[in-house]
Design goal:
alpha+beta; 8-stranded antiparallel sheet; 24% helix; ubl conjugation
Length: 304
Amino acid sequence: MDLHILDHRLRVTSISKNGLVNFTHPLIKLIFLRNRTRCKFFSLTETPENYTVVLDEEGFKGKTHLLSFHTPTTLVPFQHVSVFMLSTYQTDFILVRHEKDLSVVISTLEEEFNIYKEVGGESVPVHCQDVSSGLQKNGKEAIQPTVHPVLIPQNQFCVMSLDPDTLPSIATTLIDVLFYSSSPKEDTQSSPNQDLDCIKFFSFSLIDGYISLVMDTEAQRQFPADLLFTSSSGELWRMVRIGGQPLGFDECGIVAQISQPLADSDISAYYISTFSFDHALVPEEDIVSVTDMLQHQRKEPATS
């Protein structure tokens, strides 16, 4: 399997639900006017708590004083490297926090991946010694990661894509779903038990000209069926949401405690980190096996 090192320099930010009104205009520009903004990496994900925005420096210009910024969550616990995972319809992205962490990531993954970077328009193989300036071997004993509680909501999710040329055709629907779908009644009167049934989750990514969408089946029904496309099987996904309270950005092993058991069980997963929590999507037909696995891992029932 190949892994490519990209030149994007990215920011991970959050917008509160109440503060969204202050950012509606720039967000609409980033979604629909990508040629004017020159932003090549943009992702917007809504969760019950807030909006997570991931964007490159071109997209971030002029907004630093209004958006809060934090470093990402972690994937490689034995090397203590913070990363932020973002799966899209087309590919998976691993965002590392510091330039110096890149050599540690390459050292960790080069036995499993063929690693390349683009030089002069061509893909050139990369090895650990090529970026060794920041590499530090960790001689300390690995810290046992915290096993976080998980939530398995009842929503069924779709992972979809869209031809960028048809984006204007769904503009009204997309704006409505992203910015106007939460009513005051939903925000103020929903009980904790209601929150366990279904959660609000919608993710839109526009990266290097490719669009990726993650939404539940209720949101999907609002879009024209002939414009969105998914895999030939049209598979549905269930979510495993990690964290009983907002996760620490420096904590190790949050992703690995879910992704490794899934990989060992040959269960595919689609992973999206957000500002407060992490989310793994697994095929609908595997949710019972995943629930059993998580119950055994935590020695207590997972909420489902």
